[in-house]
Structures are given as structure tokens and as C-alpha cells.
Amino acid sequence: MNIDEITKEEMDAGTENFFALVQESLEPMGKWFVTECFEGHQMQNPPDGLFIEDWSGWLVPIERSGITQNELDGTEQSGLIVWRQNGEDAIAVEWRDVGLYKWDGPIDPNLKPIHLFTIELFQDK
Prior knowledge:
The protein has a five-stranded antiparallel beta sheet with strand order 1-2-3-4-5, covered by helices on one side. The two termini are 16 Å apart. It is 15% helix and 36% strand. With 125 residues, it is α+β, with helices and mostly antiparallel strands. The longest helix is centred in the first third of the chain and has 19 residues, at 8-26.
């Protein structure tokens, strides 16, 4: 489905489904993602039931999963949840760290992305 053809309700449900996958993938690491805002880079033809785009936010210990942006204290890892094409039939979703509660300045090029999960894209042939 093309994102220009979906309703707001489908977009909201797709975003919720995407975040369920993100949180599920972070659980084994003992982490939880607190969103700040979407960063654009929307997938034009996402799999049914998902609305996929890049998000900025923070990783916190899972014990603090109920925390809000206003309660952050500066010890959280800030960064981005990003997606990228992974071959023709899949996308990879990754965490890109930008440091402790810091959005200004260059991102350390030595920080490697953390692969969270892959979504297989089944296309009609």
C-alpha cells in the first residue's frame, strides 16, 4: 500500500504496530525506547499493517519503561531508530546512538548501529 493512500487511523495503527516490533526487539537488551519525534524518511510502500519512518528518542532501562520525555535526567542514550533497505525483499531496522542526551554536534563515527530486527517484504511476482 502506498502511504499517500492510507487514512490517519491506518497510519496511527501502523505506527503502533511498528513500535511494538521496536520494543519487542529491545526487550532482550533490557532497554525501552522513549520517543521524541518522527524524523521523516517514511517508507513509501510499507508492508500491510505497518507505518515505517525514522524516529528520534532515548533508550532507557526497561525498568523505566513508563518514563516520559519530561522526566529524562540526562543519563539516557539519545539516538535514532532508522530503517534501511536490506536487499530487494527486506528492510533492516537499527538503533543509531548519538550519545548521552545530546543532539547537537557531530555523531561519533566509531559508534556502530545496533541491528534490531528485519522485516521481510513479500512481493507478488
